[in-house]
Amino acid sequence: MVKEMTLKELQQFQVNFDKKYFGKYWADKGDIDQKISFLKDMTIALTGELGEFANIIKKVSRDRKNLGSKPSKERTEKLKEELIDCFIYLIILSNILEMDIEKEYLQKTKLNEKRFQKYL
Ligand SMILES: [Mg+2]
Predict the structure, then answer these.
(1) What is the mean pLDDT of residues 11-16?
(2) How high is the pLDDT of residue 20?
């Protein structure tokens, strides 16, 4: 059982995971070309996972429209799995960019709150 973690701890967990399984951490300092290359590779990987997610949504939507069926348990589980794959790549990308996700998320949602006030 994995213990609950903050986003900051999850980011560090991913750093350790990447170091362990890929030998070298993606965001090693100093080599800008390598960093850009990792950003490109991880962006493509994220897009691929989002595409897998979208493909399942397409099937769920098509089956609902044509057959009136609800999403199966298996499909719902697969959706969750693909979304987590996306989340992992988002964490990796944020680590490459040396972001504090928690802090930047809260800053951005504060801005969005101001932006969407007019719709209330
Ligand atoms: Mg996947």
Answers:
(1) 93
(2) 85
